[in-house]
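Continuing from the previous page...

OK, I double-checked the sequence for Sugar ABC transporter substrate-binding protein against my notes and this is the correct one:
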Amino acid sequence: MNKCLVFVLMLLMWAGSALAGDYVIGDGDLLKVSVWGVPELSVEVTVRPDGKITLPAAGDVVATGLTPVALSKELAVVLENFVKKPIVTVSVSRITNNRVYVSGGGVAPQVISLTGRTSLFKLLCSLGSLENVDLSRAYLLRQDGERKGGFYEIYVKGEFSRDFDLKAEDIIFLPTNERNKVYVVGAVQAPKYIIYREGMKVLDAILEAGGFTEYAKENSVIIHRQDKDQIKVRIGSVTEGKDVTQNVALTPGDYVIVREGMF
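Thanks. Re-ran it with the corrected sequence; updated C-alpha cells here:
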C-alpha cells in the first residue's frame, strides 16, 4: 500500500478519534465500521442489548463500554485472521446510549437523551422553572457510586468553575423545596407561601405578601417555627424606625402569622 496513502488514512483515524473524544459506546448505538480496502467488511451495525455487534467474518464482538478508538483496535486484532494488517475505523452514526435520568419531585420525572456534551448547568437551564426545586439538597449519582452536589452554588450563585459535564446513565435528584417555604398568613393583602432565600427577614416576607391589611395589628406578629417555638415580634416598631431588632431573620418552614384587630 502506498506509504503516503497509509499516512493519510492514519491521519483520518486520528481526526476521527479526536472528534469522538472519550465517548463510550452503549447498547442501541448505531456504528459505522470501515475496513480499508475490504468493502464487504465495511458495514453499519447496531449494538445489541447484550452489548455486542456482529460483523462478517469476525462474528460477535463486544462494543458496549469501549470508545470508538478502542473498538477500532479490537476489531483490527480480530480481523488479522482474514485481512493482512487491517486498518479499521469506527464512528458513531447515531447515539441512543447517552441518557440521564431526572427524579426527586421538584420537576416531573423524565429520561433525557443528550445529543452532545452537556454540563449540569446547561441541563438545569433546559428544565424550565426550578421554583419547586430545593437545589441545596439536589445531587447527582453516577454508576460508579460517585455523588456530586453544588447545584445551588452553580445555578443560583453562578459559581461556574464548579460546573461539570454529564455522563451517560447519570441520575439527577431534584427534591421538592417544600421544606424551604415560608408561609405568610393572617392580616396581609395576599396570604401565600414564599420560597426561602438566604437572609430573608419577617418584614421581607410580609411585604412580598402584599403588606398589612387595614386591620392588621402590626405589633402583634407571631413567627411559628417547626420546632414549635413561637416568636412574637413588633413589626410596627421596625417600620417606625424605633427597634430594627424586631425584624427577625426567618428560617425555612416558618409560618408568619399577622393578627387582626379592629383597633
